[in-house]
Design brief:
225 residues, 8-stranded antiparallel beta barrel, 4 helices, 11 strands
Length: 225
């Protein structure tokens, strides 16, 4: 806290109660015994304090800021506008974290449905409304580190699995994403696939199948970020 007359640069002139307050004065001048006295001897400083939303205490002439957002030197309509903008900015900053749990977009740990071990890290992105997944890192493979897709056909054959797009063409349909395909690099086979978020968006049910969706097998991926 700072004495008002020190903050404003100069000694305070005495007010109506200067005589009674003389015993409580300081080297800089007598203290203010009330807001009225302060207004009497500080003049424009009283307006400064009102605009700054501070309190003038009678026991020592100190300035105490109120415990809420203070917009210095702004009129009331502008203060309201600034506070509203600050609140909106705070809410907007929190949106990415909230939105991340409502969409499969992000990085995922792929879990083997038989051994329950983490096999790789896959990043799902959205491109023109369609989801696709790319392998960022292979963590466990029967072919050692940095395996290639020996079982794949066409352009993928013999290419590194890391960096390969293994899922594509998925579109949101209700509470799931479907209509796309997924590649199993270990077998070189392509399946239809459906994605469903579970556990508040922290896990992803990846269901691959041929023909009808009731058949096939599922893996549970865990969000990596």
């Amino acid at each position: 806290m700072t004495r008002l007359w020190h903050a404003r640069g100069g000694a305070a002139p005495p007010g109506p109660n200067a005589a009674g307050d003389a015993g409580r004065g300081t080297a800089a001048g007598p203290v203010a015994s009330s807001r009225k006295d302060v207004a009497h001897w500080v003049g424009s400083d009283a307006e400064y304090c009102r605009v700054a939303r501070c309190s003038l205490t009678g026991w020592g002439g100190f300035v105490r800021l109120r415990p809420y957002l203070t917009v210095w030197g702004a009129h009331e309509p502008m203060k309201h506008l600034i506070r509203t903008a600050a609140a909106l900015a705070f809410a907007t900053a929190a949106l990415p974290a909230l939105a991340a749990t409502d969409s499969p977009v992000g990085k995922w740990k792929t879990i083997d449905d038989k051994t329950h071990e983490v096999k790789s890290i896959v990043e799902i992105t959205e491109n023109h409304g369609l989801l696709e997944g790319k392998v960022l890192q292979v963590l466990k493979s029967d072919k050692g580190p940095h395996p290639v897709c020996d079982e794949c056909d066409g352009d993928r054959k013999g290419k590194p699995i890391e960096g390969m797009t293994i899922m594509w063409g998925l579109k949101k349909s209700g509470d799931e994403w479907s209509g796309g395909q997924i590649l199993d690099p270990a077998k070189g086979k392509i399946y239809k696939v459906t994605l469903t978020l579970v556990d508040g968006g922290q896990k992803l049910d990846v269901h691959g199948y041929i023909g009808f969706s009731l058949l096939g097998r599922s893996q549970e991926w865990v969000r990596a970020e």
